[in-house]
Design a protein that fits this description.
Structural class: alpha/beta
CATH architecture: 3-Layer(aba) Sandwich
Helix content: 25-40%
Number of domains: 1
CATH class: Alpha Beta
Oligomer: single chain
CATH topology: Rossmann fold
Order of helices and strands: EEHEHEHEHEHEEE
Number of strands: 9
């Protein structure tokens, strides 16, 4: 079917997540996932998560393993959706996950629900999609001042969030640059 990686923390630690072979899905290495979740910490408990460009679902599944309440996975590739369905079924996560096959930017633009607590954005490198998603997020109900956005880009890719979103932290891992982005809380200066 594909190749496998291990979940690194939480109740599913050591279980495998399968990913499609080839460039369709490039899941973050375990060192990146571990660093991201070390920074997020226990704040993940019971939270709602959006995993855009989900691929195999490794970030969202890691969040569920560590106590997230619900994850909405979004990807436009049929093979990735099939892999997401396989992984969530295999790990018995169906009650805590929702899978949508749609372009991530279009999903953000058409979202009618409430805000997520955590949003992962992990598109193909040098695609410009992180900037497109961040622009689409401006003014939507998908993000509130409590939402943490975690985006992974190639370290050479320039990302300029819209005015209402600010990069609060950056971490470099090889070719990957992980950005932590927030909307400032009402009544505070940034």
């Amino acid at each position: 079917m594909g190749w496998a990686m291990r979940i690194i923390g939480g109740k599913l630690r050591g279980r495998e997540v399968e990913a499609p072979r080839g460039l369709l899905s490039r899941p973050p290495l375990s060192i990146i996932r571990e660093a991201v979740f070390d920074i997020i910490g226990e704040a993940i408990e019971g939270k709602t998560v959006l995993d855009l460009f989900a691929g195999s679902g490794s970030l969202g599944i890691e969040a569920l393993s560590r106590g997230a309440g619900q994850v909405h996975f979004v990807d436009s590739a049929r093979r990735c959706i099939e892999m997401l369905e396989h992984n969530t079924r295999n790990l018995d996560l169906g009650d805590h996950s929702r899978i949508t096959r749609q372009d991530a930017v279009e999903f953000v633009r058409t979202w009618k629900g409430g805000a997520f607590d955590l949003v992962f954005i992990d598109p193909p490198f040098l695609s410009g999609k992180v900037g497109e998603v961040l622009s689409a997020l401006a003014g939507t109900t998908l993000v509130s001042d409590r939402t943490l956005i975690v985006a992974r880009v190639h370290w050479r890719e320039q990302v300029s969030p819209p005015q209402d979103l600010h990069i609060t932290r950056k971490r470099k891992f090889g070719d990957s640059l992980v950005l932590f982005i927030r909307r400032p809380r009402q009544g505070t200066c940034q």
